[in-house]
Design a protein that fits this description.
The complex is a heterodimer. Chain A is of the alpha+beta class. Helix content of chain A is 55%, strand content 14%. Chain A has helices at 8-20, 26-37, 43-56, 82-101; strands at 59-66, 74-80. A two-stranded antiparallel ribbon of chain A has the order 1-2. In chain A, strand 1 and strand 2 (74-80) form a beta hairpin. In chain A, helix 1 (8-20) packs across helix 2 and helix 2 (26-37) crosses helix 3. Chain B is an alpha+beta fold. Chain B folds into 5 domains: 5-60; 78-127 and 359-493, no CATH class; 134-343, no CATH class; 494-534 and 739-870, no CATH class; 549-722, no CATH class. In chain B, the strands form 5 sheets. In chain B, strands 16, 17, 19, 21, 22, 23, 24, 25, 26, 27 and 28 form an 11-stranded mixed beta sheet that branches. In chain B, strands 4, 5, 6, 7, 8, 9, 10 and 11 form an 8-stranded mixed beta sheet that branches. In chain B, strands 1, 2, 3, 12 and 13 form a 5-stranded antiparallel beta sheet that branches. In chain B, helix 5 runs antiparallel to helix 14 (362-389). Classes of the chains: A alpha+beta, B alpha+beta. At the A-B interface, helix 2, helix 3 and strand 2 of A face helix 2 and helix 3 of B.
Chain lengths: 108, 870
């Protein structure tokens, strides 16, 4: 976790990839996140986060089927690596430990 | 691209841009994503909006990790290549130490010299530009028509500012200050028991609002209100009152040549910075000058300097046309024509000839900028020559690199980065050098320059980069152009042409150096000439000093005291500085048949008794002013030129009409002498009589100077207890007239030296290289019986030819340049043939000396040694 850091936005994207499973390609990730965050995101921000995480070894990807809808361009389907799942788990643990340690705020 | 249904497509330009900058690998996926988003948007919004969103999205896609590299589609190991270049470069430096040091020393001295000059030029250009409204600030000038010439004055009537403001809507505001040549109050300010000698300024109330010297305490529109107010500088406030706050409201006495009065301190301002042309410690209202001299507020009189704040967007040419004849009905003649020019411009462009702007300090700024560029050029040429000369050593490297696929661009980049790296090394060294020599440079230029690296970081780095590129471009293109097959086979083509270029570059260097030598000789000879020329009066052992402040006693009392000192040969007093040569007067009429003659402007210093004798001026007819005969201002003495101008046969006793009622009788004629500096011609001159002049000239007996000066000071203190005695020798003051030229001369000396040294360094490197390359040839020649003399001649012959060509080109060029420069002087030393001969022979000798060492080393070589190694 120390070596390859995961930014906040990257973490969100990564989790969306896990959630979407076989549907996890650029635009679908964008839609899903836009729904959940209730704000507009640009293709650029999603794509650069994906590429960065792929470089860091959090994601792997391969081309999917070509479809009519995208002007004949293939989708690229992303998948989280085991390492990424481990890092996500670690971050969640750290967070919940911190939440538990925060005084005065009820964690119900 | 395949079209989607209904021909609805994303904007074409954006798509092209997208395809252009995206990494090839990502293109299909992202383009598809973009299209999908676009289709979604069309479903939701209008087509236009969808396209707009698309455009925006494309821009947002320009991110470092999505954008492809600058060259090629392949991901190259740029860092690795850069490391490789660096390694090769550093190894090259290490292997060819001589070349490296020659280049480094040459470039760093060149850069250091140019940096110093850059600092100086920058400072010169910044003078007077610091006022907040500098863009709108203009200075009113007047051209004054004389019968045969036009004078340009930077001063005008004291009424000018107010009435220009009233009559012309373009004028937003106007300020008048006391003419800084003649109406600058000096004298002594006293607070309690302490006295301070100061420089003052008369200025109208709005002075600080227009010329924005920062006001530290006080309201800037109020501090000059009324004749009793005074504003003093921060430094003054601290030295007189201990602190700035203490100064406010205090009463101080000020005695000067105009008044003796008590003032209230109303404000404190920051003294003008060193790059202000007008320096002063205190400011009082201009009305104070009017009170002591009513002509300060009259149309006839040049008591004030007028600065205008023109409205933004004013057309200056039109405004100048409007004000040109403004003075005509104020003074009832049309001899004045007014014009304005930017306030800060006057410092650099302050010289006028017959009413036409003809340069000024800008000439030196230009001169030195050119000199700096040439020095840099000389240093760059060294680099070019040495790198191309050593091309044979680089050939194999280039050949191998090309063979394994390096393209020409990459090689050019490599060689350029090599030269840029070198120039950055040189820059570092140059900055050290500049820091080392800045104090001396400041002394020569009498400036307070500082080098603030961070302030000048951009131009400095810029110059270093340009130098690197300039020096490296020719070698880079030359070296990268080799044909790999030929090079690796060992065939080298085109060596002849390359050698020609190299020779041409050496010629450029030597032409520049020789021109520098000629320039330096001429400047120094001219200065020597001005310093030693017989001016028609004595300068040795003559001391001058000025009486300051108010003085109502007869100067004859002081003079008689002075004459009692045993070491004093003679003493006199006069008005105005004798050396400045700027005392003019008209109104003398010698020809009753015409009215025109009284407009002629004579040089007309006002002197007392004994001045002619003290200065050793030669009376060739008549007599000098005499106390015994009670001569007064109805008598004048004229010089030979004036006699000639008036066409008088018997000048003695001739009575000139002067004004309506008065007359002036000529009682003597003096031999022509140089009044003022040698920039001016000897002109017709009339000595007027003035008993009360404040400048004293005293001739001392040689050898008694120290004692006599002490006694002079005692007498001075007796009459002027508040003032410091600041005598100066006429000889020193005379030399100071040429301070600009002396500065130019000493900077030129150094710069020429640097230019020559750098050129020689280059030549030295080339000679070493040639000798090395021809070792085998020399060995064979020696075996076949060539003597050392033959070898030396063989090796020097080429260089001699090059230098001779340079001499042929440089002499006429140098002649043209120095001839032009000497036109600045009315009396110049005259060009002698030996200036040029000396420069040429010097260049040749220096070249031989430089080459000689290498040559002799080569000639002494033992042929067995050099032929054995293979």
């Amino acid at each position: 976790m120390k070596k390859t850091k995961l930014g906040e936005f990257e973490e969100l994207v990564l989790m969306t990839v896990v959630v979407l499973q076989a549907d996890a390609y650029g635009v679908e990730i964008k839609r899903e996140l836009e729904d959940r965050l209730n704000e507009t995101l640009s293709v650029g921000s999603i794509q650069s986060a994906l590429k960065r995480m792929e470089e860091k070894g959090f994601l792997t990807s391969e081309f999917g089927e070509a479809s009519q809808k995208r002007g004949g361009k293939r989708k690229r389907i992303y998948q989280a690596t085991p390492h990424a799942r481990k890092v996500l788990q670690e971050m969640k643990d750290v967070r919940s430990q911190l939440w538990a340690a925060m005084p005065g705020i009820a964690t119900n | 691209m395949e079209t989607t249904k209904d021909n609805i497509q994303p904007p074409r330009w954006s798509l092209r841009l997208l395809r252009f900058f995206l990494k090839k690998d990502y293109l299909e996926e992202i383009e598809g994503d973009m299209e999908e988003v676009f289709e979604d948007n069309i479903a939701q919004h209008s087509l236009r909006k969808a396209r707009r969103i698309y455009n925006r999205e494309v821009i947002k896609l320009i991110r470092p990790n999505l954008v492809r590299g600058i060259t090629g589609y392949h991901k190259l190991n740029y860092i690795g290549m850069l490391q490789h270049y660096l390694l090769i470069t550093l190894r090259g430096f290490k292997r060819h130490k001589t070349t490296f040091f020659i280049n480094l020393i040459g470039l760093s001295t060149g850069l250091a010299a140019s940096l110093l000059i850059f600092l100086w030029v920058n400072d010169e250009k910044s003078v007077d530009t610091f006022h907040e409204k500098n863009d709108q600030l203009y200075w009113v000038f007047a051209n004054f028509q004389l019968p045969n010439s036009t004078l340009t004055w930077d001063y005008t009537s004291g009424l000018m500012a107010e009435s220009l403001k009233e009559e012309f809507p373009e004028v937003e505001d106007a300020v008048r200050i006391g003419n800084s040549h003649f109406f600058k109050p000096e004298g002594v300010i006293s607070f309690k028991e302490t006295n301070f000698e100061i420089d003052g300024l008369f200025a109208s109330q709005n002075f600080f609002e227009i010329l924005t010297y920062p006001v530290v305490i006080g309201d800037k529109s109020e501090i000059l209100k009324g004749k009793e107010s005074i504003a003093i500088s921060e430094e003054m406030a601290i030295s007189v009152f201990g602190s700035i706050e203490n100064a406010l409201g205090k009463l101080i006495d000020w005695e000067n040549q105009f008044f003796n009065k008590t003032f209230v301190v109303k404000g404190v301002f920051q003294a003008p910075p060193s790059n202000a042309s007008n320096q002063f410690d205190v400011v009082v209202n201009y009305d104070q000058l009017v009170e002591s001299d009513k002509w300060a507020a009259a149309w006839n009189g040049g008591y004030a300097q007028t600065f205008l704040l023109l409205k933004e967007g004013t057309n200056i040419d039109q405004f100048n046309a409007k004000i040109e004849n403004f003075m005509d009905n104020k003074v009832n003649n049309d001899r004045f024509s007014l014009f304005v020019q930017p306030y800060a411009k006057n410092y650099l462009f302050g010289k006028y000839d017959n009413g036409i702007q003809v340069g000024g300090r800008i000439e030196n700024v230009r001169l030195f900028t050119i000199v700096a560029l040439f020095i840099l050029l000389i240093a760059c040429i060294n680099f070019m020559n040495l790198s191309t000369a050593q091309a044979s050593k680089k050939m194999k490297e280039v050949g191998v690199k090309k063979a394994i696929g390096a393209n020409r661009k990459a090689l050019i980049f490599q060689f350029l980065s090599e030269s840029i790296l070198l120039s950055l090394f040189a820059l570092t060294l140059a900055i050290v050098l500049v820091n080392l020599f800045l104090p001396q440079f400041n002394e020569i230029t009498s400036k307070q320059l500082e080098i603030n690296i961070f302030q000048f970081i951009k131009p400095i780095i810029g110059v270093a980069l340009i130098t690197g590129v300039l020096a490296g471009s020719y070698p880079a293109f030359y070296l990268s152009g080799f044909n790999p097959v030929a090079v690796l086979k060992g065939k080298v083509s085109n060596l002849k042409g390359e050698e020609w270029i190299r020779k041409g570059l050496v010629v450029v260097q030597f032409v520049l150096s020789i021109v520098f030598i000629i320039g330096v000789i001429t400047i120094n000879r001219q200065i020597e000439f001005t310093q030693s020329k017989d001016l028609g009066y004595d300068r040795e052992n003559i001391v001058t000093f000025t009486r300051k402040g108010q003085f109502d006693r007869d100067p004859q009392i002081i003079l008689s005291e002075l004459n009692k000192i045993p070491g004093v040969i003679s003493a006199g007093n006069m008005a105005g500085e004798f050396l400045w040569g700027d005392d003019n007067g008209s109104g003398f009429s010698w020809d009753p048949s015409t009215d025109e003659d009284n407009k002629y402007l004579f040089k007309s210093p006002k002197i007392g008794y004994n001045v002619i004798e003290t200065l050793g001026l030669e009376i060739i007819e008549g007599r000098s002013f005499s106390k015994a005969l009670n001569d007064d201002n109805s008598k004048v003495i004229i010089n030979e030129s004036a006699v000639k101008l008036m066409g008088l046969k018997n000048p003695i006793g001739k009575v000139l009409d002067y004004g309506k009622e008065e007359t002036r009788e000529i009682i003597g004629v003096v031999k022509d002498f140089q009044y003022g500096s040698m920039h001016q011609k000897i002109e017709p001159l009339i000595f007027r009589f003035r008993n009360s002049g404040a400048n004293y000239v005293v001739k001392l007996q040689a050898g008694t100077e120290t004692i006599s000066l002490q006694k002079l000071e005692d007498i001075y203190q007796e009459f002027h207890p508040k003032y410091n005695f600041t005598p100066s020798y006429l000889q020193d003051d005379y030399l100071a007239l040429y301070s600009t030229e002396s500065k130019v001369a000493s900077i030129s000396n150094y710069m020429a030296g640097i230019a020559i040294i750098i050129s020689c360094l280059g030549l030295f490197g080339l000679a070493a290289f040639t000798a090395e390359r021809r070792t085998k040839e020399i060995g064979i020649r020696k075996i076949l019986g060539a003597s050392q003399v033959v070898i030396v001649r063989l090796l020097t012959g080429n260089f001699t030819k090059t230098v001779l060509i340079s001499i042929v080109i440089a002499l006429p060029l140098g002649y043209f340049i120095v001839d032009n420069w000497l036109h600045n002087f009315a009396y110049s030393v005259g060009l002698k043939w030996w200036f040029f001969a000396f420069a040429g022979i010097a260049a040749l000798l220096i070249a031989w000396l430089t080459v000689g060492f290498q040559t002799f080393k080569a000639a002494m070589i033992n042929p067995a040694q050099c032929l054995r190694n293979e």
